[in-house]
Write a structure and sequence with these properties.
Layout (H helix, E strand, L loop, with lengths): L12 E7 L7 E4 L10 E13 L2 E6 L1 H7 L4 H12 L9 E6 L26 H5 L1 H11 L5 E6 L23 H17 L6 E3 L17 H17 L6 E8 L4 H8 L2 H4 L4 E5 L13 H10 L2 E6 L16 H14 L3 E8 L1 E3 L15 E4 L4 E4 L1 H10 L7 E7 L4 E7 L5 E7 L5 E7 L2 E7 L3 E7 L4
Parallel strand pairs: 3-18, 4-5, 4-11, 5-6, 6-7, 7-8, 8-9, 9-10, 10-11, 12-13
Antiparallel strand pairs: 1-2, 1-20, 3-15, 13-14, 15-16, 16-17, 17-20, 18-19
Helix pairs in contact: 2-4, 5-6, 6-7, 10-11
């Protein structure tokens, strides 16, 4: 390979490091050991082999998160917002999610319309969202200079539209309410636009195959397909045809039947922008790293793939995993594996929760990247925050994934080319051993060391 680039010593090569043992957190160094031979493992980059374009990285706005931030002083609250959204001070989130009506990380069940007789949705209101959730979204947009794409997901239709008559514990959308529930999507998009928030897209249903104690609604593959064929044309008729529709929005390991049914129907798929998936598994593994279904979906249907939710539930634990390193590594492992298999955007679950991992109206407490200590008026950064930063802060919307490989299967790698032509290479070491490797990009070679239990982001700013 010959990329006609500058000699090694002229290359501007920054390294950003976060490591368990040394305590480095987004610590910057400069590569300065150049050679023409391989030392240790070989990490090879080929900028001529390109793959998917990246939309962005981010997390989710929830009522639990916004009300937790509301308990802080204005200065500390803004620090928490800057931490995710400020392009320089923070980690530059650009792709985020929020909930339509209530979710488990709301203070309780609520719906935008409650009257079964209100066929024209005249009583539809998002007033609940305007109290805390919408102000947070507005402040995030302002901090990011409006550089955020937001998609919205419902956890449940209003109770009167469902077969079980409640928002929680399963039940399905009654067929006679397909049109009215689809119109609720339209009203939601319009009302948020009036609040100055342009919603980029929607998913049909959060986890449509789950029956849980909190807000949910079950769709069979055929039911979700049929609802898409109602929602898509309605959005088009109402002047909202550019809004993206994401289907599935549930666990990666059980999505094959869903995509096969959806993409077998030519009338349905013309409305579908992409497939969303989560990392939770029905197996005993904590991480679902079998990405064959992502390759299958991309290769057979050519649709966009988006990671739409992941977190670490606390179970019987009484507080979040403060200071734990494995939580960040879990994020790094999943992000690298997902992006290496055609995923174009990656969205964390809650961005903020309180010191208990809530509030949650059914006590389904979870860990999160930024813990809000409402008693001490401060925020705590978990390791997952830093691991997410190694991607979101340096890989910008529009970046293209390029080929990367490593001769040591214990080192994880991925590489991108930003729209400014800078190269970004992430290398992750989950082992208990420090490792030597040589980064090779055509004739450019540099000998490097990566600490045990650490992650590095390499930024090469000169054009290749």
């Amino acid at each position: 390979m010959n990329y006609n680039k500058k000699s090694g010593n002229a290359m501007k090569h920054k390294i950003i490091i976060s490591a368990k043992e040394s305590g480095k957190r987004l610590y910057q160094e400069t590569a300065n050991t150049f050679n023409s031979s391989i030392t240790g493992s070989l990490v090879e980059i080929d900028i001529l082999k390109t793959y998917q374009k990246i939309i962005g990285f981010g997390g989710s706005f929830t009522e639990a998160g916004s009300t937790s931030l509301d308990k802080l002083t204005p200065e500390v609250r803004q620090e928490a917002i800057d931490a995710y959204f400020h392009p320089q001070k923070g980690i530059n989130y650009t792709f985020c999610r929020t909930h339509i009506q209530s979710c488990d990380f709301s203070l309780g069940n609520y719906s935008y319309v409650e009257d079964p007789e209100d066929i024209e949705l005249k009583t539809f209101t998002i007033e609940r969202d305007t109290k805390s959730l919408i102000p947070l979204i507005r402040d995030a947009l302002k901090t990011s200079h409006n550089n955020i794409r937001i998609f919205a997901s419902p956890w449940s239709p209003p109770p009167f539209m469902k077969t079980n008559g409640q928002m929680n514990r399963g039940g399905s959308l009654k067929p006679e309410y397909y049109e009215r529930w689809a119109m609720c999507f339209v009203k939601y998009l319009e009302e948020y636009q009036k609040e100055g928030i342009s919603i980029w897209g929607v998913s049909i249903q959060n986890e449509p195959q789950a029956v849980t104690p909190w807000d949910n609604c079950v769709y069979s593959p055929e039911e979700e397909r049929d609802f898409v064929k109602v929602l898509g044309p309605l959005l088009q008729r109402e002047g909202l045809g550019k809004k993206k529709i994401i289907v599935w929005d549930h666990n990666k390991d059980i999505m094959k039947d869903r995509v096969d049914v959806m993409f077998a129907d030519p009338e349905a798929i013309k409305w579908v922008w992409g497939v969303g998936f989560h990392w939770y598994s029905h197996s005993d593994q904590d991480n679902v790293l079998d990405n064959s279904i992502l390759d299958y979906t991309h290769n057979n249907y050519g649709t966009n793939l988006v990671f739409t939710e992941g977190c670490n539930p606390l179970g019987n634990k009484d507080k979040p995993f403060l200071g734990e390193w494995w939580t960040g590594e879990k994020y790094g492992l999943n992000i690298i594996n997902d992006l290496n298999h055609w995923t174009c955007a990656w969205c964390d679950w809650n961005m903020y929760l309180n010191e208990h991992g809530g509030p949650n109206h059914v006590n389904n407490f979870c860990d999160v990247s930024i813990i809000v200590d409402t008693k001490q008026n401060k925020i705590h950064y978990n390791s997952s925050y830093y691991y997410l930063a190694h991607f979101s802060r340096f890989i910008f919307p529009g970046a293209v994934r390029i080929y990367s490989s490593c001769s040591d299967d214990k080192l994880l790698t991925i590489a991108f080319r930003n729209t400014d032509d800078s190269l970004v290479i992430v290398v992750m070491n989950t082992t208990e051993d420090e490792k030597e490797f040589t980064l090779s990009i055509g004739s450019y070679m540099v000998s490097l060391v990566i600490e045990k239990r650490s992650i590095q982001t390499h930024i090469l700013e000169d054009s290749f």
